[in-house]
Amino acid sequence: MTSLKLVSAGILASLCSASDIILATFDGAAETTHKWRQMNDPVMGGKSTGTWSISGGLGIFDGEVVDVPSLKAPGFIKAAVVDMKPFGRIFPDVTSCDALSLTVKSSAAYTGFRFSIGSSHAPGGKFFAYGYKANFQPPAGQLATLTIPFTNFTDYWDDATGEAIKTCQDSKIYCPSEKTLKDMRTMSVWAEGVAGKVHLEIKSVAATGCNTTGQADLIV
C-alpha cells in the first residue's frame, strides 16, 4: 500500500509539473473565448482575401493568398485576437511553459501557415513586422495537435514574406520576452508568402510543457 501511494504521488507530481494552459477555444467558454478579426493584405494593392468564422466549436480561417501585383509576390491574410482590455489581462501567464500547441486541421497541403504572438518589434526590424512569429505545417485532412517551441518564434522577420531574418537561436534578443509570455495580449494565424487557397480549422490554442506548481490559470 505504501509503495502504491508513492507511485500515485509521483504520477500526480509529474502531471502537475508538466501541464497545458489553455489560451483560446471556440466553444463559448468564457475564460478562453476571444474576439478574432480577419485582416487582408493592405500593402501596395494586395489582392489576397480571407474570412474568419466560428462553427461547431472551431475557428474557421478561409481564403486565398495571391500575388501583390506591384511586387509580383504572394501577399497574406491573417486572423488576429483584438480583445480590448487596456488595464486587464487578456491571456494567462505562460512564462513557465516551453511551447505553443495548436489543435488544427487543414483541407490542403498549404505551406505558408504562420502563427504569431504579442506585438514586439525587433531592434532594426522591418517596418510592418510586429510580434513573434513561427511557421507551422498542419496535416491535410485530419485534426492534429502540433507543438511549436517558443524558441521557434522570432520578432525579426521579413514583412514581405513572413520568413525569419534572425532567429531565437541566432540571439536571445529575438526570443519571446518575459513580458510577452506573461500576457501575450494578441495572437494571429497567418497564411503568408505562399500563393494558394486556404482552409484551416482551429480547435484550440494552448501553452504546453508548463511547470504549473502554484499556478491556477486554465490548467489541464
Account of the protein in words:
The strands form four sheets. Strands 1, 3, 4, 8, 11 and 15 form a six-stranded antiparallel beta sheet that branches. A five-stranded antiparallel beta sheet has the order 2-7-14-9-10, with no helix packed on it. Strands 5-6 form a two-stranded antiparallel ribbon. The N terminus is likely disordered. Strand 12 and strand 13 form a beta hairpin. With about 220 residues, the protein is mainly beta. The chain has two helices and 15 strands.
Main traits of this protein?
10% helix, globular, mainly beta, five-stranded antiparallel sheet, 2 helices, six-stranded antiparallel sheet, disordered N terminus, 220 residues
Low-confidence stretches: 1-17
Number of strands: 15
Strand content: 35-45%
Number of helices: 2
For the termini, the CA-CA separation is 28 Å
Secondary-structure-derived class: mainly beta
Radius of gyration: 18 Å
Helix and strand sequence: HEEEEEEEEEEEEEHEE
Short description:
With 220 residues, the chain is mostly beta strands. Helices cover 10% and strands 39% of the residues. A hairpin with a 6-residue loop joins β12 and β13.
Helix and strand arrangement:
Elements: H1 2-17, E1 19-25, E2 36-40, E3 49-55, E4 58-65, E5 67-68, E6 73-74, E7 76-81, E8 99-106, E9 113-117, E10 132-135, E11 144-149, E12 156-157, E13 164-166, H2 178-182, E14 187-192, E15 196-210
